[in-house]
Every structure is written in C-alpha cells, then in structure tokens.
Amino acid sequence: MRGAVPRLSLTLLAAESGARLCAIIHYLVRGQLGWFGLTIACLVPGYAAQLLSILWFRADGHAPGCYLLALHLLQLGLWKRDSRRYWDVLRAEAGGGAGEVLAQLGDVCVLRLLEALLQTLPHLLLQAYVVVAVDPAGFIPGVSAGVSLLSLAWALVSYSHFTCLLKPGHLSPPAAVILCLLLWRTGMLGTRVLALVLFARLYSFWVFAVAGVHWLLMSFWLGAQQTDIVAQPCRWRLFNCLLGAVYIFCYINVRPGPSRTRVAVFYAVST
Fold first, then answer.
1. What pLDDT shows up at residue 126?
2. Would you say residue 103 has pLDDT above 80?
3. Host domain of residue 180
4. Residues 133-146 pLDDT 10s
5. pTM for the predicted model, two decimal places
6. Residue 59 located in a structural domain
7. Looking at the domain assignment, is residue 78 inside a domain?
8. What is the 3-state secondary structure (H, E, C) of the chain?
C-alpha cells in the first residue's frame, strides 16, 4: 500500500499541472485577461514551497546550480523533487527497507501537502468561483477545479496515512480505508469551497470578513491548546496563525494523542 501512495500522488500531480496549464491557456485564448492574471497569481504563493525545496536540496548535499534554480523559477522545482522522491520511495519499497521507505514517504507527504495548501487551494477557489458565478458552462475551469479538489484531498489523505504509520504498532491502512478517507476529505473540502464561493457570489467581499472571523477563532483556539511543535514564541504564534488559515477549509491534526475532542470542536465551529 505504501507504494500505491506515491504512484497515485505522482499521477495526480501531473494531472493537476496539466489542468492548471489548460486553464491558463483557456483564459488567454478567450481574451479573459483578468481571470488569466488571477490564475497566474495563484502560482505566486508556491514560491515559498520552491524556496523550501531549494533549502532541502542543500540539506541533501546537492548544490543548487543554475539548472536547479531555473527549474524552481519556472515552478518546476517541486515537480523534480517530488518525482525524484516518489521514485526513491518506490525503489526503497522494492528493496524492503522499512525505515528508508518511511523517511522518504514522510518527505514526500509533507512537501506535497505544503504545495497543495499554497498553490492548489487558491487555484481551486478561483476556478470554483468562475464556474459558479461567471461561466457555469466552462468545461476547462470545471475540470481544473475538480482535479485540484481531488489533488488537495489526496494530499491530506497521504499526510494522514504517513502520520498513522508513525504510531507504534500501526500498519499501513487497507485500500478501503484510504478510499473512505479520500471520499471524506473530498466531500468536506468540496462543500466548504462551494459554501464560500456561493457566499462570495451573493455578498461579494463580505466573504473575507466571514473567513477572517473564522481564521481568528481558529488561531486563538490553537493558541489556547499550547501546541509545542514550535519552541520560539514568535514562530509559535506565526505557526498558529498559518494553521488557523488552513482550518477555514479543513482540519489537520498536528498534536500527538487522541484528537476526537478537537475534531468535534472544529466541526461544531465550522458548521
């Protein structure tokens, strides 16, 4: 099952990149320069992940030459890194090294989740708004939004799969469990995105006020839990603020131990 995770991740990564490129070309050909510019702008937050990828290459002992820097400037650095790590996982799986597989799988899942939250989520929101409020018959934006939704949901599932493997005595979940998790994440994200898009269509910029209140509530709630993942106070506050923004759309468990109470509180506030 561990080998199936990187295979599906690599497939979705390729499909998402292709659908995003088709959406960009679609807006450019039709002369919709506003949506074209916004779709391009959704790529900008991904440069934070590109910078982290470069730092990880340096940590792995690879000097970032001109070729590598050019790939990251073209938003292809994570593709190169993810592809290399996915194949490393598959080779480690074939070699039977459980520790090596788990380490490589962790790098893949964390990096892919970061990329999904920084790039895929803004792109999903934009394309969903285009389909709902601007061009309901738009096939390419609809396909791009659907692929982005599935890719984001799978990034969350693969991260949950990795954290499950870290627990002592836990084995890789069966395919049926992974499928149920994927359906749950897809449904949760889809309804949340649809609700925000419909609210934005009806009330325009008031959606930012609603999202802002939710973000503040989640950030204060995370701070009240005294999460000790980040030791420095300034970085701890920044971490809570960033994770609070993620909690507008989905719940990610970042603390060890049972999470049923925290999940219940999250869904009580979200609904």
1. 95
2. no
3. 3-204
4. 998 888 999 999 99
5. 0.84
6. yes
7. yes
8. CCCHHHHHHHHHHHHHHHHHHHHHHHHHHCCCHHHHHHHHHCCCCHHHHHHHHHHHHHHCCCCCCHHHHHHHHCCCHHHHHHHHHHHHHHHHHHHCCHHHHHHHHHHHHHHHHHHHHHHHHHHHHHHHHHHHHHCCCCHHHHHHHHHHHHHHHHHHHHHHHHHHHHCCCCCCCCHHHHHHHHHHHHHHHHHHHHHHHHHHHHHCCHHHHHHHHHHHHHHHHHHHCCCCCCCCHHHHHHHHHHHHHHCCCCCCCCCCCCCHHHHHHHHHHHC
